[in-house]
Each structure stands twice: as structure tokens, then as C-alpha cells.
Design a protein that fits this description.
The complex is a heterodimer of chains A (283) and B (111). Chain A is mostly helical and 283 residues long. Chain A has 2 domains: 5-75 and 169-282, Cytochrome Bc1 Complex, Chain D, domain 2 (Orthogonal Bundle), CATH 1.10.760; 79-159, Cytochrome c-like domain (Cytochrome Bc1 Complex, Chain D, domain 2). Chain A has helices at 2-19, 31-45, 63-74, 79-90, 126-136, 148-159, 173-187, 197-203, 237-247, 258-270; strands at 115-117, 122-124, 208-209, 212-213, 226-228, 233-235, 280-282. Chain A has a 3-stranded mixed β-sheet. In chain A, strands 1-2 form a two-stranded antiparallel ribbon. Chain A has a two-stranded antiparallel ribbon with strand order 3-4. Chain A is globular, with a radius of gyration of 21 Å. Residues 10-18 of chain A have low confidence and may be disordered. The longest helix of chain B has 49 residues, at 4-52. Chain B is mainly α. Chain B is built from 4 helices and no strands. Chain B has a domain at 32-100. The model of chain B has no long low-confidence stretch (mean pLDDT 86). Chain B has helices at residues 4-52, 60-72, 76-100, 107-110. The chains are: A mainly alpha (283), B mainly alpha (111).
Chain lengths: 283, 111
């Protein structure tokens, strides 16, 4: 009798330890394992929402938001900005070349960024590639958060619609470090409010913060640049990162600095398989 | 004449007392200034350390600027309060960043 009680108790303890997972360190799982974990989590949290729908952000999980968004998308406020971007794309630099010379004559470049550049040992984003093209051709680089760059990205994004996110994290210790740094940034609590990105956009996705519904992190990187009602203009992903950091009362990092590029690398990898649909509108 | 003497004596006493007070006030102002400057320097150093570990909080810079303004007006009480706030937040930011270093998937993702 004693033995059977002991056996049952042992099984209970073992069972509990198996069922209750513990917080992990970033390097405990590979990028491929992470992808499976995140996909399973969001599918379970939002049953019936198809994977591609997550490209629509909060509008995939909130009916009210979706109705408003669909109404706005009938006459999208970013439409004239795509045209402005096309003009920028086609306008020759002082040396007579255009952006086409840096991007194989193809503005549909979204699927190629961000990527790990082995020689630079750094994550390279589309915004950086745009500015590298400008400086290479003797032009002044653009600012990274708003303005002219968002017009060009809107045009390039529009041309890239339908391309699938496919961020590759090579088996290179430096690339993996960049991925894990981005992952830690995403899950680490920061600022006076002691909040992580994940607490809002993973754990509490779909819930409300005052009148706003929190968007799921899955698909967060597909619709940029975004026209936000709050901004009354288009903005870049790193502008939004900075805004989120400020909201939790942390000092934001520099747009296109290492921290946000690594975060973009991790976050875009999370959305692998989801189609790009930028530019888009958000609350 | 008899009345004039006490009045003059009182005036003299008053002057002595006032000069004593003002010298005390100067001393306490100097002490407040020096104490504020010490705290300010400490806050600035801790802020740098917080930034180095990626843990600087949003409002530290604002507190330090406001502290500078208050000190320039001679309001060392307010300046000191703000410098102490900045110092506290800079230290907390460092603790937070060190505690969160290397974190990965939280348990709720895995259950």
C-alpha cells in the first residue's frame, strides 16, 4: 500500500514538472524550434484564424477593428504616397543612375530583407540598403523613421505584395547571436513599467489596453511602412519600435541601430511563410 | 535721549541678528549646492552605466534637465529631488537589464 502511494505521488510530481514548463534562456531553442513554438501558440490562442490573416495585424483578431480598417482601405490614405515613392524610384541621381541600379531594376525587394550579411557581420535591412544606394551614388541618405524614405518603401512594399517572408538564420555563430539578441530584446522586460514586447503582443495579444486591442506579434513585420491614424502619416517599423519602448517608459534606441535591426531579424523570422502586404493602415 | 538709546541698541541687535541669519543662509545654500552637485554627478554616471547595458529608462534625461533648471534658479530642494529620482531610475534600469539579460521563451509559450 505504502509503495503504491509513493509511486502515485512520484508520478504526480513528475507529471507536474512535465506539464509546467519553465522560462527559458534565448539560446535554449533554435530558430526553427522557435518558429514551431510561436506558430503553435498563436494558432491555439486564435483558433480559426488562418496563418496569412496575421499579416493584417490586429484586424485579424478584432471584428470592430477589422470593420474600421476595411472601411479605411476602401480609399487608403497611403495610396498617393505609393505614387510619390514611384517618382522617387524613377528620379535620376546627380550621376544619372536611379535606385533601380542598386536593386537589379526591381523594386519588389521586400522578400530579400532583412538578411544576415556575413562580411559585415550584421543584419542588413531594406532601409539601410536604400541609404547605402544613395551614399554610393553621392546622394544624401534619408532619415530612417518618417518622410521621404517611407514613400520609397511604400512603393517598393506595394510592388512586393504577395511575396512570402523567408528570413534565413544561417548556422553561423554571429548570425545566431544577432537572432538571439533580437529574441532577448523581444522577451526582456524594460522601462519603468517593466514590460516586454511579448507581454503585450504575445501573452496579452487580442486583449485591450484602454480602447486599443493589442495586436499579435505574428505577422507584425509584413505590412510596413504603415499609415497610422495616430501619426497621420506613414512611418517605418523602427519608428514603431521606438514608440513602443517609450510607452513602457524605456529610452528608445536609435532607428536602424543594432538593437532594432536584431529585433527586426527575430520578429521577421517569426513571420516566415506569411505574405508581405505593405503598405497598410493601423490604429 | 533715554528713549533713543534703547532704540539704537535694538537696531544694533537686529542688524547683528540679520547678518548672522544671512551668513547661515549662505552656508546652507552652499551646502545644498554642493550636495546637489554630488548627487547630480552620481546620477549622470549611473545613467551612463544604465545606457551601456541597454537599460536606460525614458525620463532620466528629463529629470536631469529639470534639475539643472531648478538649480540655476537656486531651488536646490527641487533640484535635489529630481537628481535623486534620476539616480534611482538609473540604478533600477541597470538591475532590470542585468536580470533580463539573455532571457528567452517564457513558460506561458510552452504550456
Amino acid at each position: 500500500m505504502k509503495k503504491s502511494i509513493l509511486a502515485v505521488a512520484t508520478l504526480c510530481v513528475l507529471g507536474t514538472s512535465v506539464a509546467m514548463a519553465k522560462n527559458q534562456m534565448a539560446t535554449d531553442t533554435t530558430p526553427a524550434e522557435d518558429l514551431k513554438i510561436y506558430r503553435a501558440y498563436f494558432m491555439k490562442k486564435f483558433p480559426g484564424v488562418p496563418l496569412q490573416e496575421f499579416a493584417n495585424g490586429v484586424n485579424a483578431v478584432s471584428e470592430v477593428n477589422r470593420e474600421n480598417w476595411e472601411a479605411i482601405e476602401e480609399f487608403p490614405p497611403y495610396e498617393p504616397m505609393i505614387d510619390e515613392g514611384e517618382v522617387i524610384w524613377n528620379t535620376p541621381f546627380k550621376n544619372g543612375k536611379t535606385f533601380a541600379s542598386c536593386f537589379n531594376n526591381n523594386p519588389a525587394q521586400r522578400k530579400n530583407y532583412p538578411y544576415w550579411d556575413k562580411s559585415k557581420k550584421a543584419v542588413v535591412t531594406l532601409e539601410q540598403a536604400v541609404n547605402a544606394c544613395l551614399t554610393k551614388n553621392g546622394e544624401k541618405p534619408m532619415k530612417y523613421k518618417k518622410g521621404k524614405i517611407t514613400r520609397l518603401l511604400a512603393y517598393m512594399g506595394y510592388q512586393s505584395r504577395g511575396q512570402k517572408t523567408n528570413v534565413v538564420v544561417p548556422n553561423d555563430p554571429d548570425a545566431l547571436k544577432a537572432y538571439y539578441d533580437g529574441k532577448t530584446f523581444f522577451f526582456a522586460r524594460r522601462g519603468q513599467l517593466n514590460f516586454s514586447c511579448a507581454q503585450c503582443h504575445v501573452e496579452s495579444a487580442g486583449q485591450r489596453v484602454r480602447s486599443n486591442v493589442l495586436s499579435p506579434a505574428l505577422g507584425h513585420t509584413t505590412g510596413w511602412p504603415v499609415y497610422r491614424s495616430k501619426w497621420g502619416d506613414l512611418g517605418t517599423l523602427h519608428r514603431r519600435f521606438g514608440g513602443c519602448n517609450k510607452q513602457v517608459r524605456a529610452k528608445p534606441f536609435k532607428a536602424q541601430g543594432k538593437e532594432y535591426r536584431n529585433l527586426e531579424y527575430f520578429l521577421t523570422h517569426m513571420s516566415n511563410g506569411i505574405e508581405y502586404n505593405g503598405p497598410s493602415t493601423r490604429q | 535721549m533715554k528713549r533713543i538709546i534703547p532704540v539704537a541698541a535694538l537696531a544694533l541687535l537686529g542688524a547683528v541678528a540679520l547678518s548672522g541669519c544671512s551668513s547661515d543662509a549662505v552656508k546652507s545654500d552652499t551646502a545644498a549646492k554642493s550636495s546637489y552637485e554630488k548627487t547630480l554627478a552620481e546620477a549622470k554616471a549611473e545613467r551612463k552605466k544604465a545606457a551601456a547595458v541597454g537599460g536606460e529608462w525614458r525620463d532620466i534625461g528629463k529629470f536631469l534637465k529639470a534639475a539643472d533648471k531648478a538649480a540655476a534658479k537656486g531651488d536646490y530642494d527641487t533640484a535635489m529631488k529630481l537628481a535623486k529620482k534620476a539616480l534611482f531610475q538609473a540604478k533600477m534600469g541597470q538591475i532590470q537589464a542585468k536580470e533580463q539579460a539573455g532571457v528567452g521563451n517564457p513558460a506561458y509559450l510552452l504550456n
